[in-house]
Design a protein that fits this description.
The chain is built from seven helices and 14 strands. Strand 3 and strand 4 form a beta hairpin. It has three domains: 87 residues, no CATH class; 42 residues, no CATH class; 114 residues, Methylamine Dehydrogenase, Chain H, CATH 2.130.10. Helix 1 runs antiparallel to helix 2. The radius of gyration is 31 Å and the shape is elongated. It is of the alpha+beta class.
């Protein structure tokens, strides 16, 4: 008998599997062994026992050649495991595959965490090609509101119109009465360099400033007392944004990073380093999707 000919399988388990050209029955057997070893490391004894019994019952493993009898025999899991002790573990195998996959990304936008369920072009099984430009939905054309209608709007309504994308002329954002009664409340000195961005928190009780000294400061708007100083950026702070639930603060900097801070504790929660240029804007969209809060950032 030609030993290169595989033993015809009596198993129906392989009928619905389309193996790639670089795969054969032995490769498939090694993958099964790697999965078994991974489950064994997790102390899933009952699961691995059922898996071994099912593999032997259906004769899934590649047949072996009996040199004494010069014939092909059905392989057992126990014998295959003994003769293939050097089979790669599942986790290092996926990690190596991820390292090879990330070489496709030359712009620093590769994901930092391995995800087997990622969408193209970040999937490990995606074709070896550079990812194309992201599909940006067309920007809707927002008409300018009639100034006569804006005159009847309260200041709060005008600010909400801007928040939802309406185009309000700058000279009409505040009413004449507010501009007439406007007086300087106080003057605070705290930064050693020019301030680039400033915003209120969602309650209006705190003022947040970002400056050229790489620092973010949170002030009490009434008492003008400095409450927090956020340190972490290595370049000027370009923009600030407060989440709508008033729990998170996002900051963009010329150090090409976006940092997210906890407003209650004053501590950083996340650092995003995917940008390759100086960040000019950050924003929390006013919507959730599947319980997920999104953060949008842009650069020059």
């Amino acid at each position: 008998m030609d030993v290169s000919e595989p033993l015809p399988s009596t198993s129906t388990a392989l009928n619905n599997i389309n193996l790639p050209n670089a795969f054969d029955r032995t490769t498939l057997s090694e993958v099964i062994l790697s999965v078994h070893n991974f489950l064994e490391h997790l102390n899933c004894g009952e699961t691995t026992r059922v898996l071994r019994d099912e593999i032997n019952r259906q004769q899934i493993l590649a047949p072996r050649h009996d040199l004494l009898e010069d014939r092909m025999e059905a392989e057992t899991f126990e014998h295959f495991a003994q003769t293939h002790e050097n089979t790669a573990d599942l986790i290092p195998l996926i990690e190596k595959l991820n390292d090879i996959s990330q070489k496709r990304f030359t712009n620093g936008n590769q994901p930092s965490i391995v995800r087997l369920s990622a969408h193209p072009p970040y999937s490990l099984t995606c074709a070896d090609a550079k990812p194309g430009p992201p599909q940006i939905p067309p920007v809707p054309v927002i008409p300018t509101l009639n100034p006569l209608r804006l005159n009847s709007f309260r200041t709060k309504d005008r600010l909400q119109t801007i928040q939802f994308g309406g185009n309000v002329p700058s000279q009409m954002i505040l009413s004449k009465k507010i501009l007439t009664d406007y007086k300087r409340h106080t003057r605070m000195m705290g930064h050693k360099s020019p301030i680039y961005c400033i915003t209120f928190d969602r309650t209006g009780k705190y003022i947040i400033t970002g400056a050229d000294d790489n620092l973010i400061k949170v002030w009490d708007a009434q008492s003008c007392i400095l409450r927090y100083t956020f340190r972490g950026h290595s370049a000027e702070i370009c923009d600030l944004a407060v989440a709508h639930e008033n729990t998170l603060l996002a900051s963009g900097s010329n150090d090409k990073t976006v940092r997210v801070w906890c407003m209650q504790k004053g501590t950083p929660t996340n650092v995003f380093k995917q940008h390759t240029g100086q960040i000019s804007t950050v924003c929390f969209p006013a919507f959730f999707q599947g319980g997920i809060r999104y953060l949008v950032s842009g650069l020059f």
